[in-house]
UniProtKB/TrEMBL annotation, chain A:
Keyword Nucleotide-binding included in the entry's annotation: yes
Protein name according to UniProt: Manganese/zinc/iron transport system ATP-binding protein
Annotated organism of origin: Olleya namhaensis
Pfam families noted in UniProt: ABC_tran
GO MF annotations in UniProt: ATP binding; ATP hydrolysis activity
InterPro entries, per database record: AAA+_ATPase (IPR003593), ABC_transporter-like_ATP-bd (IPR003439), ABC_transporter-like_CS (IPR017871), Metal_Ion_Import_ABC (IPR050153), P-loop_NTPase (IPR027417)
Automatic annotation (TrEMBL), chain B:
Gene3D superfamilies registered for this protein in UniProt: ABC transporter involved in vitamin B12 uptake, BtuC
GO biological process, one term: response to zinc ion
Superkingdom of origin organism: Bacteria
InterPro entries: ABC_BtuC-like, ABC_TroCD
Major localization class: membrane
Subcellular compartments: Cell membrane
Protein name (record): Manganese/zinc/iron transport system permease protein
Family according to the record: Belongs to the ABC-3 integral membrane protein family.
Keyword Aminoacyl-tRNA synthetase: no
């Protein structure tokens, strides 16, 4: 993909002067970011760089103290149905009394709106999503009886069922085995092929060139954003992770 | 049974159901303590409402008390948000303050009326049938029954209407927010229902039992099921069961009804805590023992697979080599034999074909970090479990 092609492309997510702070301490500082439609993008940066915070403020889960976010040129509230979100696995209580199928069905609640109950159509969509992530045999399992990788796949299926245009994922590869990691990345690549935009908070710098075509370097401020092959270099890595970034890779 | 007895049991049962519904979500949201706070701090609301209306069953009383309940939650969250103290400390600071305001108000102004601190703490269920609701001269039953019945009806309607929203915001707040179901609205909705239910139940069972009826049935149900709807159903059933059996216990012992119901709730929880099929203490202990033996078995089979030397596989030396107690070594050896995984020939232990297949497969799973699969594999190989 060349820059000219990109410029012609629609912008899926636009972030303007976004600042998020807890008391006086800024977590994100004056972020400007344009994510073009159809990219598979990694957000990378050290611990505490504000990667999850960025996603959460785009999705309206956190309130920024300044700045604005638009999804296809409209505020998030109006475009909710275009967006799906995969939170960090650790953000929920897996002992909750429910099954894999039920968790995936929750992805359909957004299109249902208040009060309306999921019916056959929603159930079918949820089962298809489970099939896609290879979890159909586990549909009736209580969610605490699933392994870490299986739980992550359930979360992914829940996002797929939302049938969104833009997918936000917070560390989907954390604590999953190699097979699941490959299964997940294949689904993400499939989504991109279908013209979807996928934004992933990512920890493992080594796999960035292999998995992603777009990357954003973040460390409280935005360092750089663009195609992996143009900007994934020592210069930006050093700016993001400091002089010792190679050590942090090895960690 | 006379009609007063039936009415008391009916009131207690309705209170139990009305409490179990918000209680289930409070337990799942790890907010059990907040119900304790609400049940105490609605007292000033009740007292002020009583001064205005001079009627313990006035709807205004319920509104005011529910309002104080929500104020409690807001105050707790406000103090907690400053980051100076933790949530449990914030709860501990807020509710005694509000409760004591209520106690002082009663002591200062209500000496001559039917509202005393004892009644507030443990309720007056036995007296409930005497306070009748009379509409144009016709006695249509005890007032408490009508009040709690109305509250229960509203709670059930809300539960059915917003079940999906309650579930998703309890399980995953972030997802609920991103889907457009404001977790704040649902949170305060639940807090309002909890407050209203507490007020409605307060008169009948008092501040302490309300907490027990909200938390204990839900906690008991939590140990027995992995399905939210069943958990709600079981919690209601346990609540009603304790209410009725508690009433008869009180009858037999000539003791406080509220105290007896709470005792039944406690006993029920204890029984389930010990004997629940999957999450119960005994089941967990049994499973852990079984797993320990099976891990030992696998270790033992690995040892056999790794060693061709006869002396490493001689029955008499095995125990020293693998460094186990006699009992454990014997158990493991017997288990391996029962499952046809080893044969003993001239006191030399060898793997059978099946034992070899089992061990190889287990090693594969361990190397590829999929040890969770070993549990499933056991079903294919084991004739007898450890």
């Amino acid at each position: 993909m060349t820059w000219e092609m990109v410029m012609k492309q629609k912008i899926a997510v636009k972030v303007d002067d976004l600042t998020v702070a807890y008391n006086y301490k800024p977590v994100l500082w004056d972020i400007d970011l344009e994510i073009p439609e159809g990219v598979l993008m990694a957000i990378v940066g050290p611990n505490g760089a504000g990667k999850s915070t960025l996603i959460k403020s785009i999705l309206g889960i956190l309130k920024p103290i300044a700045g604005s976010v638009t999804i296809y040129d409209k505020p998030y509230d109006k475009q909710r149905k275009l967006v799906a979100y995969v939170p960090q696995k650790g953000s929920v209580d897996w002992d909750f009394p429910t099954t894999a199928l039920d968790v995936v069905t929750m992805g359909t609640y957004g299109s249902l709106g208040w009060i309306k109950r999921p019916g056959q159509k929603e159930k079918k969509a949820a089962l298809e999503a489970l099939e896609k992530v290879g979890m159909l045999p586990f549909k009736s399992r209580q969610i605490s009886q699933l392994s870490g990788g299986q739980q992550q796949r359930i979360f992914l299926a829940r996002a797929l069922v939302q049938n969104a245009s833009i997918y936000f994922m917070d560390e989907p590869f954390q604590g999953v085995d190699a097979t699941t990691e490959i299964a997940i990345i294949n689904i993400l690549k499939e989504l991109r092929k279908a013209g979807k935009t996928v934004i992933v908070v990512h920890h493992d710098l080594q796999t960035v060139p292999e998995y992603f075509d777009w990357v954003t370097f973040l460390n409280v401020k935005k360092i750089a954003t663009g195609p992996v092959k143009d900007i994934f270099n020592d210069d930006n890595l050093t700016k993001t992770y400091g002089i010792n970034y190679k050590v942090s890779i090895q960690e | 049974m006379n009609s007063a007895q039936i009415e008391i049991q009916l009131i207690a049962s309705l209170v139990a159901i009305a409490c179990a519904i918000p209680g289930t979500f409070l337990v799942l949201r790890k907010m059990a303590m907040i119900s304790d706070a609400i049940s105490h701090s609605i007292l000033p609301g009740i007292v002020i409402g009583f001064f205005i209306t001079q009627d313990l069953n006035s709807p205004l009383l319920i509104v005011l008390a529910a309002f104080t309940g929500v104020i409690t939650v807001v105050l707790v969250e406000y103090i907690q948000k400053t980051g100076l103290v933790k949530e449990d400390t914030a709860i501990g600071l807020v509710f005694p303050a509000l409760f004591s305001i209520g106690v002082i108000l009663i002591a200062k102004n209500a000496n001559d009326v039917h509202l005393d601190v004892d009644a507030v703490l443990v309720g007056e269920l036995a007296l409930a049938p005497f306070d009748r609701l009379i509409i144009s001269g016709v006695d249509i039953g005890p007032k408490s029954l009508w009040i709690i019945g109305t509250i229960l009806l509203i709670t059930i309607t809300l539960l059915i209407a917003f079940f999906k929203e309650l579930k998703v915001s309890t399980f995953d707040k972030g997802l609920a927010a991103s889907l457009g179901f404001s977790p704040a609205i649902i949170h305060y909705g639940l807090m309002t229902v909890s407050s209203v239910t507490t007020v409605g139940a307060f008169d009948a069972v008092g501040a302490i039992l309300v907490v027990a009826l909200m938390i204990a049935p839900a906690a008991t149900a939590y140990l027995l099921t992995t399905n939210l709807k069943k958990m709600l159903g079981l919690a209601m059933f346990f609540g009603v069961f304790s209410a009725i059996s508690g009433y008869w216990l009180a009858h037999k012992l000539d003791a406080s009804i509220a105290g007896s119901i709470t005792t039944m709730l406690g006993l029920l929880f204890l029984a389930v805590y010990l004997f629940a099929p999957n999450k119960g203490v005994i089941a967990v202990m049994y499973r852990e023992k079984q797993q320990r033996t099976e891990v030992s078995l696998l270790t033992f089979l690995l040892h056999l697979k790794n060693h061709n030397e006869l002396e490493e596989r001689h029955v008499n030396h095995l125990r020293e080599h693998i460094n186990w107690h006699k009992v454990r070594a014997k158990n493991v050896l017997e288990l391996a034999q029962k499952n046809n995984m080893i044969i003993i020939d001239n006191n030399i232990v060898s793997l059978t074909e099946k034992g070899d297949a089992f061990t190889s497969k287990a090693i594969d799973y361990i190397i590829t970090n999929e040890d969770a699969q070993i549990e499933d594999m056991k079903d294919d190989f084991f004739l007898f479990r450890g």
